[in-house]
Amino acid sequence: MAVPTINLKTHTKLALGYFVLAALLGCVLRFFRVFEIPVTYKFIVHAHSHIALLGWVYLALTTLLYRLYLSNEKVHKTYRRIFGFTQITLLGMLFTFPFQGYAVFSIIFSTLFLFASYWFSWFFFKHVPLEYSKTPSLKFAKSAIIYLLLSSIGPWALGAIMNTLGATSIWYRLAIYFYLHFLYNGWMIMVLMAVFLHILEKQRHILPQRSFNRIFLGLNLGIVFTFFLFIS
């Protein structure tokens, strides 16, 4: 019995669709300086950032990881469920943040997104083929997912900080920076490095082990220690 395949072009188009939505929300933010718009500026800012980072970028990067490492595995059904659940969380954020900002329903959907990212992370680690186990690109891919998981500490900490110290606390800003730093500089950069190295590996261009170790160690040290620039 043939294993059903997934049309990743549709996933790519969806990611680009979120990019367009983020761009349109960005245009709305610019129009605030010209026109009087009957919505709350801060709410649109929240919607824009969430759709750009979690819709466009996250969806594009997870689709790439699936395409490069898992598309030949018999795990399409599970991936469809993860993808569908992720879409529910993204659409929930899209239709709640512009109208209520950070409130009950937007927080519920953004929290569910964290669980969707945990589900994908488990899925990737569990099903990645053994043939990639010693490749440099997979080390970057796994590191990227570790940074994705690490970054989620920031959103979880925000709730406790808001209830105890308030939004004016330095810890509130630190939690947001922690999240964004490891999301941008950890998750995103490491996935792009994994994609680049995967392409090289397919072309039989393998980095010398010593060079790879230096690059891998240097990037990881840079990601971790540049976080402390904010504190200093």
Automatic annotation (TrEMBL):
Membrane-traversing stretches: 12-31, 51-70, 82-99, 105-125, 146-172, 178-200, 212-231
Signal sequence, renumbered to the chain: none
Keywords, alphabetical: Membrane, Transmembrane, Transmembrane helix
Name this polypeptide is given: Cytochrome oxidase subunit I profile domain-containing protein
Lineage, uppermost ranks: unclassified sequences, metagenomes, ecological metagenomes
